[in-house]
Design brief:
alpha/beta; Rossmann fold; 18 helices; 14 strands
Length: 428
């Protein structure tokens, strides 16, 4: 099939490469000439494991084509995916300006044949109906189309694997023709097919991200309790999570969830609910607990650091990504800078993005060990693999005082005690 993706962020570029790899011809439309030039040269722009190789392979096979020109891509395509951002507005609602503007441009460029316009962007319930109205208004008379919602569940850091091996494929549409075309495109992929209406598909995406956020905030709440009782949160949640009805996934406490999805989607669903006069207290509490997790950890750093010279390991909102959007690390660093802390940070992939945000307000090290030289405390924000079995004796030798404040529970507290490291983690 020939398809188009509009947008080359984490969702657009990963999904486009996967469908190209499955043998489709995939156009990717962007709006920044410099970025499109880089993509054409095989530079994926973002860091996502395996993406560079997949992109180069499909560029060489001429199955993926990057363009700024809607006319080159849209009339040639059977399916057009909207994969542009829906960042939060100041009041928490999703900003739909890009999605709606893109829908209008797609409409004006539709060919004189049938096209399915499918939204991958996370959009509040009712948005796809608006998209349909916009396309109806702006399309050439001869063009026929249907809209569909096909939400994406890939995680950054494991995006390619998640896209090749989804648990389920949600197709929301009132049109049989659109559903059949989307089923055909997804044929090689495993996973349960869930065929629903447009509105259900839109809500499935928000409800999925929200329940995962509920689990994380619940784990943090249990951690707050454990810290006051002598219980160990990891033991508690292992005991809880072994119940198949509950599961252990997404029950890791720490410094709260970040990233471009959970924080914004919890707020956006809250806003949608409130606008419909639904009591959204559960999600309001989830967001408050997430905030509290960051604040508690900030307090822990301030309370246990002998002086204000610290090292930080990990800036990305999670490992295996360079993404720092809504990263708890940035929020906490800004609080520490306000308190007069001096910070040297190391992250394997996210330092370039952090420099754009914080410039020289903090120092950057070339390695984890270099970062800790002369530090009075080490603070861990992201659970990169390379920190898990690092030589902690060497870390201790390089530091001025052996204090580690760990937001991701990487090390066993007893082993740290034996090594003479003052170790503070979460809920233990
Ligand atoms: C999420 C959803 O998982 C994915 O399905 C959706 O398509 C996009 O949003 P992503 O934001 O890439 O994916 O990462 P995820 O692995 O879900 O982690 C999100 C945040 O939650 C991170 O900050 C992570 O550190 C935090 N988290 C996750 C926890 O604090 N504890 C956990 O147990 C799991």
């Amino acid at each position: 099939m020939t398809i188009t993706f509009i947008g080359h962020g984490y969702v657009g570029i990963v999904t486009a490469c996967v469908f190209a790899d499955l043998g489709n011809i995939v156009y990717v439309i962007g709006r920044t000439p410099e970025k499109i030039a880089r993509l054409k040269n095989g530079d994926p722009i973002i860091f996502e494991p395996g993406l560079g190789e997949l992109l180069k392979k499909n560029l060489e096979a001429k199955r993926i084509i990057f363009t700024l020109d809607y006319q080159e891509a849209i009339p040639a395509s059977e399916i057009v995916f909207l994969a542009v951002g829906t960042p939060p507005k100041a009041n928490g609602e999703a900003n739909l300006s890009s999605v709606l503007a893109t829908a209008e441009t797609v409409a004006k460029n539709l060919g004189a044949h049938y096209t399915v316009v499918s939204c991958k962007s996370t959009v509040p319930v009712g948005t796809n109906t608006k998209i349909k109205e916009i396309i109806e208004k702006h399309k050439p008379t001869a063009a026929t189309f249907d809209v569909a919602s096909c939400p994406e569940f890939l995680r950054e850091g494991t995006g390619i694997n998640d896209t090749f091996f989804p648990d389920r494929i949600i197709i929301g549409s009132a049109s049989e023709a659109a559903t059949q075309l989307l089923l055909k495109l997804h044929e090689p992929l495993p996973g349960e097919r869930v065929l629903v209406g447009l509105e259900s598909a839109e809500v499935i995406k928000y409800a999925s991200n929200s329940i995962l956020s509920v689990k994380i905030s619940f784990a943090n709440l249990v951690a707050f309790l454990c810290e006051k009782t002598g219980a160990n949160v990891e033991e508690v949640l292992d005991g809880v999570g072994l119940d198949k009805r509950i599961g252990r996934d997404f029950l890791s406490p720490g410094i709260g969830y970040g990233g471009s999805c959970f924080p914004k989607d919890v707020l956006a669903l809250t806003k949608t609910g409130e606008s419909l006069k639904v009591d959204m207290s559960l999600l309001i509490a989830v967001d408050q607990i997430n905030q509290q997790a960051r604040d508690n950890f900030t307090d822990k750093i301030i309370a246990h650091t002998p002086s204000k010279k610290i090292a930080i390991w990990g800036l990305a909102f999670k490992p295996n990504t360079d993404d720092i959007r809504f990263a708890p690390s940035l929020y906490i660093i800004k609080k520490l800078l306000d308190q007069g802390f001096t910070i040297t940070a190391f992250d394997p992939e996210a330092m370039t993005n952090t420099k754009k945000e914080l410039s020289d307000k903090i120092a950057y090290a070339d390695s984890a060990l270099e970062a800790v030289k002369g530090a009075d405390a080490l603070v861990i924000f992201t659970e990169w693999n390379e920190f898990k079995q690092i030589d902690l004796e060497a870390v201790k030798r390089l530091m001025k005082s052996p204090v580690i404040i760990d937001g991701r529970n990487l090390y066993p507290p007893k082993a740290m005690q034996k090594m003479g490291i003052k170790y503070y983690s979460v809920g233990r």
